[in-house]
Specification:
By secondary structure, the chain is mostly helical. The protein contains 2 helices and no strands.
C-alpha cells in the first residue's frame, strides 16, 4: 500500500474517532436534554419497537 493511501486512511480514522468521542461527550453533557434531539428520539423509538 502506498504511503499516501495509508496516511489518508489514518486521517479518516482519526477524524471518525474524534467525531465519535465528541458525540459521546455531547450526549453526556446534555444528559436528558439530548432526548429533545430528533436523532435521539429516533433511537429511543427504535429501541422500544
Amino acid at each position: 500500500m502506498p504511503d499516501h493511501l495509508a496516511d489518508g486512511l489514518l486521517v479518516v480514522l482519526l477524524v471518525v474517532l474524534a467525531l465519535l468521542v465528541l458525540l459521546v461527550l455531547l450526549v453526556r453533557a446534555f444528559g436528558r436534554d439530548a432526548s429533545v434531539a430528533p436523532g435521539h428520539a429516533l433511537l429511543r423509538r427504535g429501541g422500544q419497537g
